[in-house]
Amino acid sequence: MDLVKSHLMYAVREEVEVLKEQIKELIEKNSQLEQENNLLKTLASPEQLAQFQAQLQTGSPPATTQPQGTTQPPAQPASQGAGPTV
């Protein structure tokens, strides 16, 4: 009976260590994401913040509209730059 008890205690201690490590990683990730969020909030225009708040209230996904808008302008100058070089 003592062998079973000691084996279970060892297994529990091992699991506790794994969970502590996961908690530590999640806390670090959360801190990183909070810093990123704060940076994005400071860089966003009032119009973008208002649009984001409106999307949150309507339930539509905000991530699909803004990244497309940011990827399109760099593509246009690249195509214009490729035209004169040909």
UniProtKB/TrEMBL annotation:
<feature type="region of interest" description="Disordered">
    <location>
        <begin position="50"/>
        <end position="86"/>
    </location>
</feature>
<dbReference type="GO" id="GO:0008284">
    <property type="term" value="P:positive regulation of cell population proliferation"/>
</dbReference>
<dbReference type="GO" id="GO:0043066">
    <property type="term" value="P:negative regulation of apoptotic process"/>
</dbReference>
<keyword id="KW-0804">Transcription</keyword>
<dbReference type="GO" id="GO:0006357">
    <property type="term" value="P:regulation of transcription by RNA polymerase II"/>
</dbReference>
<feature type="compositionally biased region" description="Low complexity">
    <location>
        <begin position="57"/>
        <end position="86"/>
    </location>
</feature>
<keyword id="KW-0963">Cytoplasm</keyword>
<keyword id="KW-0805">Transcription regulation</keyword>
<keyword id="KW-0175">Coiled coil</keyword>
<dbReference type="InterPro" id="IPR047862">
    <property type="entry name" value="TSC22/BUN_CS"/>
</dbReference>
<comment type="similarity">
    <text>Belongs to the TSC-22/Dip/Bun family.</text>
</comment>
<dbReference type="Pfam" id="PF01166">
    <property type="entry name" value="TSC22"/>
</dbReference>
<protein>
    <recommendedName>
        <fullName>TSC22 domain family protein 1</fullName>
    </recommendedName>
</protein>
<keyword id="KW-0539">Nucleus</keyword>
<dbReference type="GO" id="GO:0005829">
    <property type="term" value="C:cytosol"/>
</dbReference>
<feature type="coiled-coil region">
    <location>
        <begin position="9"/>
        <end position="43"/>
    </location>
</feature>
<dbReference type="InterPro" id="IPR000580">
    <property type="entry name" value="TSC22/Bun"/>
</dbReference>
<dbReference type="GO" id="GO:0005634">
    <property type="term" value="C:nucleus"/>
</dbReference>
